[in-house]
Amino acid sequence: MSAGPRVAVFGSVNMDLVAYVDQVPASGETVTGTAFRQVPGGKGANQAVAAARVGAEVSFLGAVGEDSFGGELRANLLANGIDVSGLRTVPGVSGVAHIVVDGRANNSIIVVPGANGGVTGTVEGDARIIEGAAALLLQLELPMEAVAAAARTGRELGVPVYLTPAPARELPAELLESVDVLVPNQHEAAAITGRTDPAEALAALVELVPEVLLTLGGDGSLYGRRGAEPVRVPAFRVEAVDTTAAGDTFCGSFAVARAEGRGPEEAMRFAAAAAALSVQRHGASSSMPTRDEVEALLGG
Length: 300
Ligand code: ADP
Description:
Order of helices and strands: EEEHEHEEEHEHEHEHHEEEHHH
Helix content: 25-40%
Shape: globular
CATH architecture: 3-Layer(aba) Sandwich
CATH class: Alpha Beta
Strand content: 15-25%
Number of helices: 10
Oligomer: single chain
Bound molecules: adenosine-5'-diphosphate
Number of domains: 1
CATH topology: UDP-N-acetylmuramoyl-L-alanine:D-glutamate ligase
Strand order of the largest sheet: 5-4-1-8-9-10-11-12-13
Largest sheet: 9 strands, mixed
Number of strands: 13
Radius of gyration: 18 Å
């Protein structure tokens, strides 16, 4: 593959342990599950894989534990061609998400941050990896002070900083002032602004950061900049079987398309195609499409 733009992702990496049951057990109860899957996840790692699959050269910064999951998570990033020189191995356990999916496809999730929780800032060497990247992608599955430190580093180095504000938390002004592009879904946008109407939420968010990309599930996405008319791009009409990591696929692909010089609207279409392909398959990073698949859907 020809070298695409370089994207740095500073974020979480988890092993997702997914048990399928007819009914979630009550406290003290034991039930027999119907299936089990172990899949690499974490919003940071998912965005990294999404960006790599659509052609970026990706560097991942974060931490795994000394347990066997740590080795497997590192191997998964490497298998996707991702540079892991900024991935630290630290004492203790890796991040783990215990996910129970019931017969109605409702999820209950326990995330144990493990090594992710120990990332409290940037370390020596991180700035060297971030420097020169065409985008820095951040999410909120690491401690807030670490996310803020990475955003500051990106800003100081002139690297466009993308923030997916998930899981939804209060966003300190100190973080927001280093963010160039905020990429919330509708729930996160509502949590930040108190507005459930997408157009109203967008109008409030463009007062906080220079660019906002609001994802609306099957209703597509909405892009805004202060003082400019919002741009709406519909989702592709597809049969969705699993929307896990749709937002991470969308954000990673959008950042790559922008880094390649595409305008917001064209980048939204590219990202919508990538996300549409991912929701038609089961899994998180395993469901993410390649560049060729995205271009085939776009008719390129
Ligand atoms: P998140 O996964 O963060 O909740 P969304 O649900 O908003 O994010 O989805 C992100 C993007 O994925 C959407 O903007 C859309 O392009 C695509 N997408 C999500 N759900 C569907 C769907 N059912 N059909 C087609 N595209 C979808």
